[in-house]
Amino acid sequence: MTESLFPSDEPAPGVETRTEVAPSEAPLAVRMRPPSLEELLGQDHLLGPGSTLRTAIESGQPHSMILHGPPGSGKTTLARIVATAADGAFEECSAVNAGRAEVRAVLGRAADRRRGSGRPTIFFLDEIHRFNKAQQDALLPAVEEGLVTLIGATTENPYFEVNSALLSRCQLYELQPIGPQATEALLRRALDDPERGIADPPEVDVEALSMLAERAGGDARTALGALGRASEVVRRSGGRVDLERAEDALQQRALRYDREGDRHYDYVSAWIKSVRGSDPDAALYYLAAMLEGGEDPRIVSRRMVILASEDVGNADPQAIALANACALAADRVGMPEARLILAQGTAYLALAPKSNAVTRAIAAATSYVREHGAELPPDHLRDAHYPGARKLGRGQGYEYPHDLPGGVSAQQLAPDALRGERFYEPTDRGREAELGARLEELRRARGADERPPRSR
Asked: Which residues does 70 contact at the CB level (< 8 Å), separation at least 6?
């Protein structure tokens, strides 16, 4: 059903071509790539019966789409299944190699194809996030007019990396990492299929398969590659693929963490919310994932200090002192020892009583200022340290609290328009409960008007 990438034997300059190799020589992950929806494992949330994507594939009428997901989740496989099911030509490029000239060549062939045979063109652009704005803009007219059906694939968040104009013309589908159960089923399929999988497969322990499926982290390529390497070692040296051999073939898998991209924000967000939610175990896990992934510990330190005020506040006034000390100490000693200090701060903040009363208070005060402007302070509070200030009434009548019983003055301190306004409302958690009781005493001593707190 699909045409060759290039009509002639000569490839278009600069466009990626795939070297033809014998099936038996191709990597195991390539040989085991599912050719149809029936063999595709995982992504049930996108491909369930009656779903939009499945219906489009089965009808042979695909729409332009962006496939977003981690490596090894099946983006390329799904794109090829879409193209195989559709009655159209299939053009494939990688944005790593191709540029605007190559895209124009694809679009030119699509236009010739439409004029000549009327056949549609499906254009699969892998790593679409590698295209800059101008390169992505070159695709807009063709997609909008239906000259090509675009299938873009990316491991990055398309809302960050794909132009909003292009994204609005495509349906976004987010692929999930392939689960351990589906990954193990794929590994067993490779052992049971002598034509596409491992010819004359060795004996593989159940524990080894389970470990590969679990530690591949949803990356089918990683799991199949490790199984292929382990099987080759056993074929040459004899024996079986046990847990030790499987671990040796897998080695240390690179963490799925990008300190410059979407994963950075995801893990920082999850760490903050786990601390806020008082779960030290989850918070320490996300901290470990960030640090193992190469995150700058200073970013964690800064967020820790902010969190100590934003989410703990006066429920534990010591929290900001500890967070600041952890930030300074971590910066002083550096990695890898800094992880101990950051872990201490994380655990302390997670277990501390929580209050966002200060956060709400400054937000309410800021909202009032933005709405009403900055009211002038009463004259007795204004600066009187310049010639003529006294003649203007500045500073006259100010009561010095330290000269009064209890160190508290009943004198009005807020502008007239703010009499009785309440911005700070302490919670009943931790130390803030005591501060709340103290605040009520002070308000009564000053004869503050009873007025409900401002809505936040």
From this structure: 155, 175, 177, 218, 219, 256
Digit-coded pLDDT (tens) for 49-91: 999 999 999 998 899 999 998 888 899 999 989 988 887 788 8
Q: What is the pTM of this model?
A: 0.62
pLDDT digits (tens, 9 = 90+) for 359-389: 999 999 999 888 888 888 888 777 777 777 7
Task: Sketch out the chain's domains with CATH numbers.
Answer: 23-174 (3.40.50.300), 180-250 (1.10.8.60), 262-351 (1.20.272.10)
**C-alpha span between 283 and 348 (Å, rounded):** 11
Sign of CA dihedral 345, 350, 353, 357: positive
Enumerate residues 6+ apart whose C-beta is below 8 A from 329. Answer: 338, 341
Each residue's pLDDT tens digit, 269-287: 999 999 999 999 999 999 9
